[in-house]
Design goal:
Number of helices: 12
CATH architecture of the largest domain: 2-Layer Sandwich
Bound molecules: adenosine-5'-diphosphate, magnesium ion
Number of domains: 3
Strand content: 25-35%
Structural class: alpha+beta
Largest sheet: 9 strands, antiparallel
Radius of gyration: 21 Å
CATH superfamily of the largest domain: ATP-grasp fold, B domain
Distance between the termini: 41 Å
CATH topology of the largest domain: D-amino Acid Aminotransferase, Chain A, domain 1
């Protein structure tokens, strides 16, 4: 916590929807917010103080961090290492650049999780094509190839079922240090859990959610997940273990596969507020964004528990390319109980995340119906 009696200042590296929703949560608590991003894209314009500048320039970064109590990132790709190196002792950068370095590379992330004894899909860090071929055969000729760095929303992954597809995946996705090959997991459900963790070690764990992907991209999130008490407890325990294993300070999104026998495997970690946690804004006592802000400022964390029986979140993706227009907004707003979030991106593109809709209700089924209705009304 800052030692002076003024409200703290939070710096956010990044100008997308995660930065926007974190900034809005901070501003509500009277926290001063600054954002730094390399180009104007809309979401954080006019929210707090938005600085556009070359964030790889030490002078730009030094000027930005100098009056911040804490600096955080909206993605693992933001230059936290530079922020750390120019920050004085009074400014904390969270998550640390070391935590980000480990999580950002899918190979280093797997190694850290495996060392902590966390169950993972079978995997091999393949430095050469020969190793990738051996892994492909070992895992029954059905694998998922993943680029080590820079992938998101399914860009950077390929399901591989033949040697031809393996060669293609290697050509497209391998880097100087090779390619990650994972056995294909026949999961019954994909689950996710958010954890907020402070520097002091205080942690809160959110309810387990059920996530559905379309084309490897998150489409719908349902809470509570239709899972047993035992699986619920195990998922929350795994998420806490992952946060401790990576010394994460801030918000961690943990993606899991549930197997038919109830076992859980960790798919991947995201060291930031996560798409599958957007539902927390309307459905939980404290949103993931608010606890992200609180944790990086070392303020007391808020209760993560549900304040409604059920909620569903549906992503709103771009349907065309060009300037954003409010096409379908009135129709979506007319759906009873639908909370409409539009991220303020000035340009739309097919499949780009433009917003989301959350509906809270007595049961997940009616929440789902209303959320789908509102989301599909939006023609962005
Ligand atoms: N080993 C696997 N077996 C089966 N499906 C997988 C596997 N790995 C990933 N997937 C599917 O692909 C999606 C995206 O993969 P993920 O590793 O989470 O990459 P991203 O960084 O794009 O989110 C997952 O949510 C899951 O649906
Ligand atoms: Mg993922």
């Amino acid at each position: 916590m800052p030692h002076h009696s003024l409200f703290p200042t939070l710096g956010i590296l990044g100008g997308g929807q995660l930065g926007r929703m974190s900034a809005l949560a901070a501003l509500r608590m009277g926290i001063r917010v600054k954002t730094l991003s390399p180009s104007a894209s809309g979401p954080v314009d006019h929210i707090g103080e938005s600085v556009i500048g070359d964030w790889n320039d030490p002078d730009v970064m030094a000027a930005f961090v100098q009056d911040c109590d804490a600096v955080t990132v909206e993605s693992e790709w933001a230059p936290a290492d530079l922020a750390e190196s120019v920050a004085g002792g009074a400014t904390h950068v969270w998550p640390s650049s070391e935590t980000l370095r480990v999580i950002r590379h899918k190979g280093r992330q797997k190694t850290a999780l495996a060392q902590a004894g966390i169950a993972l899909p079978e995997y091999r860090l393949c430095a050469t094509y020969g190793e990738a071929e051996a892994a492909f055969l070992q895992y029954g000729s059905k694998v998922v190839a993943k680029r080590f760095e820079g992938s998101y929303d399914g860009y950077g992954n390929a399901t591989v079922r033949s040697k031809e597809e393996l060669a293609e995946a290697w050509a497209q996705l391998s880097a100087d240090d090779g390619l990650l090959i994972e056995s294909f997991v026949p999961f019954v459900r994909e689950l996710a859990v958010m954890v907020a963790r402070s520097y002091s070690g205080e942690c809160v764990v959110y309810p387990v959610v059920d996530t559905e992907q379309k084309d490897h991209r998150c489409h719908a999130v349902t809470v509570p997940a239709s899972i047993s008490e035992a699986v619920n407890g195990m998922a929350q325990k795994l998420a806490l273990k992952a946060a401790n294993a990576t010394a994460l300070v801030g918000l961690l999104g943990v993606e899991l596969f549930e197997l038919e026998n109830g076992d859980l495997l960790v798919n991947e970690l995201a060291p930031r507020p996560h798409n599958t946690g957007h539902y927390t804004i309307e459905a939980c006592h404290t949103s993931q964004f608010e606890n992200h802000v609180r944790s990086v400022l070392n303020l007391p964390l808020g209760a993560p528990s549900l304040r409604v029986p059920a909620a569903v979140m549906i992503n709103v993706l771009g349907k065309r390319a060009g300037e954003l227009r409010a096409d379908g907004l009135e129709e979506a707003l007319a759906v009873p109980g639908a909370a409409i979030h539009i991220y303020g991106k000035t340009e739309t593109r097919p499949q780009r995340k433009m917003g989301h809709v959350t509906v809270t209700a007595e049961d997940a089924k009616s929440a789902r119906r209303l959320a789908e209705t509102a989301a599909s009304a939006l023609n962005l």
